């Protein structure tokens, strides 16, 4: 009487939901607790990891600095080795009886009193400068020629070194030889060097004399910016002595600080705010990498500018003091509450220091970020494991609960579904899964379902038999209606044919009868009799043609009307048809233009019938072109895709668009003013079409009123 709402929760779902709640709540609590414990453990361990990784990173940076310092040491050592080799070569040439080749110095004396040697290409040879202060020029000329003999070794040394800018020899008598050749005149005219230059006034000479260098060692100058094409250079110098311990001069290499700057700073330290620089034994800045971008600044100014650009608030003196306090070690310095690491490494060959200033933040931040990311990954992995356990437990619990609940409720639900499916025609028996009241109920339902199915099966068979009989009667009825329609069509066609034949035969026969009566009744002149006889003959020809066309039309598809097939040359066949049509219209002005393709393939067909088809089409074109003073017909024959195309184009009265589909209908003749007086029975085009189609070809037409008509005939090349 009362029906419970359809939206109630099924019993098996209630059991399933209760089991899930009781199982998942403790597991969820345990997962949250473990996650909090692991997070706390990771956090407490991160500080020690940062310290350990920072130590490792600093050691990596120190190894990189040591590697760069070793590279600088090798470059300085190579420079000193090359300088020592040139110094020995020069002393050898001076202290032996070296025969000077018959050469001269081509010196130009300037109005300021100095001499210098011009050049065309500065890299081909060295050139000479002689100060206005120089004395005893004859001996000086010989000694300068000796040094000029070293051009080859100068050039090779310069070419093989990336740091050198100039190789020079300063004579004690204030003369200079430079390679590559140097524009002394430009330097003197610009005021960079005096015309009465005294080499003793320059550090690059005085640092190597007997007073400052009694042991004749290779000495390095402080950075300077005088008498050089580059703003700042540092020079390596070596004294040249004679056997009697007389200082002949000083040989030196100029190394622009820009070149040195470009060769260092490649230690592999990638931190963006890193500052790299060299400090010599006198605590002077030798070079910093940023100097190449500021060539007009001194090394100290360039360092201070770079520190300013990087917002590092420390002066140069404080920085150098900190470096000297811990040479060759890693030290820290705090600047504006920010910590920096200073890594210094000694250059063993020159007692210089290669220094790198690195912000601690740029080292620590990546480490902390990496540890944080690692913690997040590990926590995420741990959380994923917990969720996986939770998911597995959920699935397992769901399956067990579902199985148990379904086992209790499934038989009742199955029976309920079976009852609901009875109206849909489902009478399959339900499996009996239990030996109880539900099993008995299921058995009773199965017997009831089988009885209903048997009764419905009998009714269905009777309905099927009735349907078959009905369909059979409907088919017969449709067939009968179709036959009746065909009979009506045949009857109509026969009536129309008889009416048309009666009309077509009655008209000429009536004319013939009347003309014969005139001939038999009246005495006419011979000329008049011949005229009437000629008219009678033409009327008889019309009747004969009509009868022949009717015969051809009715018998061409019959078995008795066989075609005599043979291989034919299409051009000869068309020529024959043109000849017959021309003879028929001998009294008209006709121009037939033939356009045949060369080497036309042959066709397989009945020449008699094909000739009849082409003849009908040509006569039709001539007949409907009589309105022209000159009938012009073009006949084209050509091959196209394994077929033969024949086109017949005239300049006649044309056919209207609405009548084009009727051209090949029986007895059709277009009713226009222009067609009046044109004879015909409307069967020639029909016969031509039937003959073409009998040869597996087709025919089409294109026309324009008062312009002309073109017929298109397509035949297979080989129909054998």
Structural overview:
The structure is a single chain. Helix content is 51%, strand content 16%. The N terminus is likely disordered. Strands 1-2-3-5-4-8-7-6 form an eight-stranded antiparallel sheet. The longest helix is centred in the N-terminal third of the chain and has 85 residues. With 720 residues, the chain is of the alpha+beta class. β1 and β2 form a beta hairpin.
Write the layout of secondary structure elements.
Blueprint: H1 11-95, E1 108-109, E2 115-116, E3 127-130, H2 137-148, H3 151-159, E4 166-171, E5 175-179, H4 184-189, H5 203-206, E6 219-220, E7 233-241, E8 247-256, H6 257-263, E9 275-279, E10 285-287, H7 299-309, H8 316-325, E11 330-335, E12 338-347, E13 352-359, H9 360-421, H10 437-521, H11 526-555, E14 566-568, H12 570-584, E15 590-596, E16 603-605, H13 607-623, E17 631-640, E18 643-649, H14 684-694, E19 698-704, E20 708-716
Parallel strand pairs: 15-17
Antiparallel strand pairs: 1-2, 2-3, 3-5, 4-5, 4-8, 6-7, 7-8, 9-10, 9-13, 11-12, 12-13, 14-16, 17-18, 18-20, 19-20
Helix pairs in contact: 1-9, 10-11, 12-13, 13-14
Short note summarizing the structure:
The chain has 720 residues and is α+β, with helices and mostly antiparallel strands. It has helices at 11-95, 137-148, 151-159, 184-189, 203-206, 257-263, 299-309, 316-325, 360-421, 437-521, 526-555, 570-584, 607-623, 684-694, and strands at 108-109, 115-116, 127-130, 166-171, 175-179, 219-220, 233-241, 247-256, 275-279, 285-287, 330-335, 338-347, 352-359, 566-568, 590-596, 603-605, 631-640, 643-649, 698-704, 708-716. The protein is built from 14 helices and 20 strands.
């Amino acid at each position: 009487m009362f029906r419970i709402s359809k939206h109630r929760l099924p019993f098996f779902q209630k059991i399933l939901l209760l089991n899930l709640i009781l199982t998942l709540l403790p597991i969820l609590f345990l997962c949250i607790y473990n996650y909090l414990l692991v997070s706390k453990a990771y956090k407490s361990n991160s500080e020690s990891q940062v310290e350990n990784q920072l130590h490792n990173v600093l050691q990596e940076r120190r190894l990189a600095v040591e590697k760069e310092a070793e590279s600088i040491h090798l470059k300085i050592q190579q420079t000193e080795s090359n300088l020592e080799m040139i110094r020995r070569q020069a002393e050898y040439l001076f202290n032996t009886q070296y025969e000077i080749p018959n050469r001269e110095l081509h010196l130009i004396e300037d109005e300021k009193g100095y001499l210098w040697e011009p050049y065309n290409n500065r890299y081909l040879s060295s050139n000479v400068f002689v100060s206005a202060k120089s004395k005893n020029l004859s001996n000086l000329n010989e000694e300068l020629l000796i040094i000029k003999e070293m051009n080859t070794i100068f050039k090779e040394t310069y070419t093989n070194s990336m740091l050198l800018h100039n190789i020079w020899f300063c004579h004690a008598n204030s003369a200079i030889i430079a390679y590559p050749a140097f524009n002394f005149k430009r330097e003197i005219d610009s005021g960079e060097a005096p015309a009465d230059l005294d080499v003793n006034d320059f550090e690059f000479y005085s640092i190597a004399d007997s007073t400052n260098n009694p042991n004749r060692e290779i000495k390095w100058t402080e950075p300077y910016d005088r008498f050089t094409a580059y703003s700042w250079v540092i020079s390596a110098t070596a004294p040249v002595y004679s056997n009697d311990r007389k200082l002949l001069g000083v040989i030196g290499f100029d190394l622009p600080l820009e070149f040195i700057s470009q060769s260092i700073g490649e230690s592999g330290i990638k931190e963006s705010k890193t500052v790299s620089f060299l400090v010599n034994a006198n605590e002077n800045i030798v070079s910093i990498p940023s100097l190449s971008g500021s060539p007009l600044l001194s090394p100290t100014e360039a360092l201070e500018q770079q520190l300013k650009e990087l917002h590092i608030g420390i002066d140069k003196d404080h920085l150098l003091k900190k470096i000297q306090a811990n040479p060759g070690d890693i030290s820290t310095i705090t600047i504006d509450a920010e910590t920096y690491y200073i890594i210094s490494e000694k250059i063993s060959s020159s007692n210089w220091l290669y220094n790198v200033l690195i912000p601690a933040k740029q080292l620590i931040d990546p480490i902390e970020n990496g540890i944080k990311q690692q913690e997040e990954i590990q926590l995420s992995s741990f959380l994923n494991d917990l969720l996986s356990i939770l998911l597995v437990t959920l699935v397992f619990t769901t399956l067990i609960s579902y199985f148990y609940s379904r086992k209790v409720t499934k038989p009742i639900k199955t029976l309920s579904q079976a009852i609901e499916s009875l109206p849909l025609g489902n009478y399959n028996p339900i499996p009996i899964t239990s030996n109880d009241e539900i099993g008995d109920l299921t058995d009773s339902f199965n017997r009831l379902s089988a009885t209903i199915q048997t009764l419905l099966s009998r009714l269905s068979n009777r309905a099927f038999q009735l349907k078959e009989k009905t369909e059979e009667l409907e088919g017969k009825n449709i067939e009968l209606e179709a036959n009746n329609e065909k009979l009506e069509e045949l009857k109509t066609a026969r009536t129309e044919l008889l009416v048309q034949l009666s009309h077509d035969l009655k008209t000429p026969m009536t004319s013939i009868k009347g003309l014969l009566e005139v001939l038999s009744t009246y005495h006419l002149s011979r000329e008049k009799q011949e005229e009437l006889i000629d008219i009678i003959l033409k009327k008889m020809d019309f009747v004969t043609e009509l009868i022949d066309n009717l015969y051809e039309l009715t018998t061409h598809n019959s078995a008795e009307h066989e075609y005599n097939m043979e291989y034919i040359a299409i051009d000869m066949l068309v020529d024959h048809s043109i000849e017959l049509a021309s003879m028929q219209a001998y009294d008209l002005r006709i121009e037939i233009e033939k356009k045949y393709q060369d080497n036309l393939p042959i066709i397989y067909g009945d020449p008699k019938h094909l000739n009849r088809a082409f003849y009908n089409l040509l006569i039709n074109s001539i007949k409907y072109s009589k309105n022209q003073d000159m009938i012009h017909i073009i006949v084209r024959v050509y091959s196209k895709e394994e077929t033969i195309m024949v086109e017949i184009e005239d300049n006649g009265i044309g056919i209207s668009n609405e009548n084009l589909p009727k051209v090949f209908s029986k007895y059709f003749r277009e009713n226009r003013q222009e067609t009046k007086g044109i004879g015909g029975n409307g069967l020639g085009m029909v016969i031509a079409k039937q003959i073409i189609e009998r040869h597996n070809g087709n025919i089409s037409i294109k026309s324009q009123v008062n312009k002309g008509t073109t017929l298109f005939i397509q035949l297979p090349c080989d129909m054998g």
